[in-house]
Every structure is written in C-alpha cells, then in structure tokens.
Design goal:
Blueprint: H1 2-20, H2 22-35, E1 41-47, E2 53-59, H3 84-92, H4 99-105, E3 109-111, H5 121-128, E4 138-140, H6 142-145, H7 153-165, H8 169-185
Parallel strand pairs: 3-4
Antiparallel strand pairs: 1-2
Helix pairs in contact: 1-4, 5-7
Amino acid sequence: MYRYAKRLSDILFSGLGLVILSPLLLALGVAVRCSSPGPVLFRQKRVGRDKKLFTMLKYRTMRSDAPAEVPTHLLKDPYAYITGLGRFLRKSSLDELPQLWNIWTGDMSLVGPRPALWNQEDLVAERDKYGANGIRPGLTGLAQIRGRDELPIAQKAAYDGEYRANMCFALDCTILWQTVLSVCIGRDINEGGPGSTSL
C-alpha cells in the first residue's frame, strides 16, 4: 500500500508544484534564456527504476559548449563552464525544479536515490549491491541530507541502500524536511566534490 500511496502523493504534489510554481518556473526559464546563449532546459539520459534510462530535465546552468555527458567533478575546471546565473541556480537547487515534470510522468519520485548518469557505471554497480536500482530515483534522497556532493560513491550508494531497506512515509517526510533546511543554508554543495553528479 505504501508504494501505491507514494506514487499517488508524487502525482499530487508534483502536479500542484507545477501549477503553483508556474510563475517562478517561467521567470527562471526567461532568466536562463537571457543569461547566455543556448536552450533553457538541459536534458540528459539518467538511470531510472530497474536501470531503465529516461531523460531528466534541469534548467541549464552551464555554457552550451560544456561536455554534455561528463559529471561536473570530472571536468578539469567546472567553474569555467558554469554561468553566473547557473552558480546561483545550483547553490539554491532551483535548477532541479523542472524535475517536477519527471516526477509527474513517473520517471522519478519526490524521494529516492538521485538518478545516476547513464555512464556512471561505478555508482550503478554499487547500488546493485543494495537493490537501490529497483526503486524510482528521487528529487532528493537520504544521501542528499547526509552529505550530498561531498560523499564518495560507495558511501552514497550505501545510504541509497539504507533508504531502500527502510522506505516509509515517516522517512520520506524527514528527508524532505531536512532537504529544505539543507537548501536554505546551502550545505554540502561542492561542484568539484567526489560524489558530485550535477551538470
């Protein structure tokens, strides 16, 4: 019953978010468009439930000539590609808002492991050890409130596995609340961090 209720709540809250935040979503889209040449949205193949690929959406935070399939932490100088507005969007996590659409369509959930890049075989393999690839990836997750980009891949996967083993509404609510707090104070965000997958 929890899984059905979780999906229903994902549809409800992502739908409400898309409607209520539509003025902000539009304003951010215009800001991205005006800040640098290139598309408003950044689309990238990510690993979904049961390792099926889907297209994840973000506001574009990097120049259009940035490598599209390379994690930020693997770039020699990530800040050379990130736009001025992009730094703000990443720091505030506002670049993630388009993923409300991914949640509404069923590719993602509000809470779950953050979706790995399609070519992040090391992270996918680590999650396999814990069965964490068998659930929908999330907008936020247990790893995000316990270290976010500062976590090495093995530790991040272990937290994803811990969430998989203890999934419940109480844990989901705790993760969502602590995510809001982390975003508000800008905690544990490091573009060059060992576990960073942001682009």
